Amino acid sequence: MSSLAVIPGDGIGPEVMAEVLKVHAVVEDVFGTGLKTEVLPWSADWFLEHGDVGIDVLAVRRDHAAVLLGALGDARIPDNRHAIRIIGGLRQQLELGVNLRPVRLRALAHCPLKHVTAVEDVDLVVVRENTEDVYVGVGGAVRAGSPAHVAMEVGVHSRWAVDRVVTAAFELARSRRRRLTLVDKSNAMPSAGPLWQGRFRAIAASYPEVECDHLYVDAAAMELIRNPARFDVIVAGNLFGDILSDEASMLAGGLGVAPSASYDPEDGSFAGVFEAVHGSAPDLVGTGRANPLASVMSYSMMLGRLGLREAHAAVERAVDEVLCGDLLTPDLGGTARTGDVGDLICRAVARHD
Ligand code: ATP
Ligand code: MG
Fold it and tell me: For an engineered disulfide with 337, which of 71, 283, 288, 350 has Cβ 3.0 to 4.6 Å away?
């Protein structure tokens, strides 16, 4: 019997995670995956009460097959220390170097672009490096607060981490439409640029069946809107991948339907951390307007990575069904509440045969 660590988190995190747990109970009933859940209380409330985040990352890794992570972020902790320690701790200590952010349009109505005329035109995955770049916390400030204030934020890019994420992206592209686009800003980044470009070319030699492509990040931002159908898999560093995946999510309905998976491709016994791309959305707390689908879709990615193919397919079909119907939360133009959408997913999974 394996176990899932469930961290509901802050803001709408617990509200959408409650729907995921409902869906999981049905999946368990229908497919008998043998995955029990353990809800772990680390959150802003916990941090404020205990003065510490509480997470023991290595114990989480030891005791669980995967982590379902809710959003973390709370205005009472302005530097988001608790979130950075929990999310950063999981990513860094567990070497979760690959972050997948798929964007697939399920019903034409959810794409705001009028020149997108077929759902197949939006079906891409952003593969984001997850441990380096400007997120490493290297830098400093001098003369802070004075008119001569200077701040430095250093982007770190190691050959090792670049190889890991580029290889994962080629593997993914090979299993999809076999087209991989490297996105960088090598024309303005004379140190990181050649590393990414050189490793991309070197690794491409092992994947002759994958068509390679390159765009500067500014051009990629434009192309995502101009012609999303040109993209299959995009690989990028941590910062550009973060920005482009939020942009790309809008092509399929926005943050309410944007899931993600973070994993270490070399760790065969831990599936990774699965979380919605969105944050804690304090404006929606308690309103019943939060869309639970991003979290349900992240859960579905987890089922896929755990090799539970039937359960994964059933949840994907349920998500398709809901997104093609009209019982939707307000972010998708409907009037349904968080729990209504969760119930609908549960009923669709239960109908599975
Ligand atoms: P973070 O810094 O944690 O990424 P953020 O400032 O980017 O947070 P989010 O919490 O991601 O902000 O949300 C941005 C806005 O998107 C929210 O204010 C909310 O209106 C909308 N939003 C986010 N998640 C959802 C959701 N699940 N359903 C509906 N709307 C959402
Ligand atoms: Mg955000």
Answer: 288
